[in-house]
Amino acid sequence: MSYKILIADDEEEILEILELYLEKDGFEVIKAVDGKKAWDIINEINIDMAIIDIMMPSINGFKLIKKIRENYNIPVIFLSAKTQDEDKILGLGLGADDYVTKPFNPLEVVARVDAQLRRYYNLNYHNKNVEQIIKIGEIELDIFSNIVKKNNKEIVLTSVEYKILKLLMENSGRVLTKKEIFEIVWEDNFIGDNNIIMVHISNLREKIEKNSRKPIYLKTIRGLGYKFEKKVTSNEE
User: Fold this and answer.
1) Quick check: keyword Nucleotide-binding in the entry (predicted)?
2) Chosen CATH of 133-228 out of 1.10.10.10, 2.40.128.600, 1.10.287.130, 2.40.110.10
3) Lower Cβ count inside 10 Å, N or C end of the chain?
4) Stated pTM of the model
5) Domain definitions of the chain by residue range
6) Sheet-wide strand order for 176-177
């Protein structure tokens, strides 16, 4: 299967370099030179993933990811010369799955694309003996269809949010450290950037909790990590 990758960047050289390396790796590449063109392509073509620059004309990357997350659940990687933590946290908070700063090694970008697609589409998942549906309280997660529901109503999650929730629900009742979560979800060495996980946890709570400030499902265990409660009573809900 050839995955369709959208690259949105106003630098022609960046588009050409990434197109060259991604096509060499077997991907089909669609290019856009600004945010408006990228948004039109997303609505016209069934793309599998997007690589988006932050500083683009017409619609910048932050506005574009917000529009994408309101309508689609594809993996998104931010590509930008901005290196400040605030920009990185904002991008991840808006729904980006990964963040690469310029200048970059094209092979690293290809590796990150491979990793995101592998995790998102569960290419290595073949264990049919695993319980298909995990249900705790009002939250229901279907492992095979990658669908999460609350009170039988589907919740739209980003791919990273889904992976974190799946990991925590599969290990409900157990405290997972930030290091464990990062290395399993991102498949990379933990570098101590706790803010990335914190942002995604906060976004998850906004979507699954009745009151995100007083969570009953996704608990913070201070000094240790996070835990998804194994049982939630009707009184708590």
Assistant:
1) no
2) 1.10.10.10
3) N
4) 0.58
5) 4-120, 133-228
6) 176-177, 225-228, 218-221
